[in-house]
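The data are set out underneath:

___
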Amino acid sequence: MNDGFLLSISPIDGRYHKNTKILKKIFSEYSFLRLRLKIEIKWLQQLSQIEDIHEIPKFDNIINNFLDNLIKNFNYKDALEIKKIEQVTKHDVKAIEYFLRNKIASNISNYKNIIHFIHFSCTSDDINNLAYACMMKKTVFTILVPLWKKILSSIKFFSHDAKRVSILSRTHGQPATPTTLGKIMTNFYYRMKRQLIQLKNIVILGKFNGATGNYNAHIAAYPNVNWHQISQNFVISLGLQWNPYTTQIEPHDYISEIFSCIVRFNTILINFNQDIWGYITLDYFKQKIKNDAIGSSTMPHKVNPIEFEKSEGNLGLANAVMNHMIIKLPISRWQRDLSDSTILRNIGVVIGYSIIAYDATLLGLNKIEINYYNISKDLHNRWQLLAEPIHTVMRRFGIVDSYEQLKQLTRNKNITKNDIHAYIDKLHIPKVEKQKLKKINPNNYIGNSIQLVEKI
């Protein structure tokens, strides 16, 4: 590790840089500059193809290749050059425009007819909103969806592996009707899977319609051009869906929708982490031990569930910031204010915290093993749990006060198998029903748990 990581202010770029380095290709200032340059160039190329605009020449292969290579070969030196221009302009998008103008002027003959159309009729957010939309699309489909699928796959595998492991349930923290460990896992799998489906179906929008969303400048220059259609075609060409009705900015509703979905997924995962942590505390899970690893600086015996704790903490940070973004981003004073700008620049931060958490949960799941003995032991002598099926069958046959009778028999008492069977023998129900009830024990009173896991 070089000292750059040790001097980082944020653990995202410091302690956890290995988890989050993939985000540099999306959310770094360098990547943001490259994306905006790409959009400026693509728009310039689009303009050259419009038949009704005679003042810009139709680009031949030489010019198009030159422009395409500016995107393809964009490097750190180019990014620094843009930042130097920005020190003068005090405007980040204008710096990109001037950078592109300088490149064209230095490399293309008859450039004057081209440079006048760089950033033509654009407002800054025409460029920025499309850049952020491209970032969000890449984040969703190349980072979040694969990671969520990995978590789901791990939980699903665990659920099938543990589908026959009967376990004591706890409602309000108290012993309750048994389930299986596999069914517990399946519950979480189903909840998270719903969020994955919703995330993939959120429409990622882009706008390209000028200073207040009406194509004012476009029409002033070329009133006969169908700018509405050209805007739609241009946005779609970037792999996005078109938002035709905006102010100066794309209103970020879709980003709020994406973050709302991520927050729900993260919240479910917090719940999952806490439950697994609790089962480790109950010794229902054993943690695989690495000889060199240390759980406590003073207590040699300890193996702490730190991955689930680490995940919970980072998910909390991600959700806290995203919840602010969810509320803030769809709001803009009148046609535009700049309060969204610094918020958008922190998208990588919340995704970073989430990635750190996802990796921690996956690592934690790989370190735990089922402690079959302790799970079985805890369930073995819980015969009071059979009060539920017994009084339910009694109700079927019209026995009065069945609930009250079982409450009197079982509450706050050490009930044994013999106590339960003796009570069943005294019931005024058919003999065959008594035999069925006697076949029920704390271990097999699990309803359709196994079948529900198999159906998933």
In short: Strands lie at 166-171, 174-180, 205-206, 241-242, 285-287, 368-370.
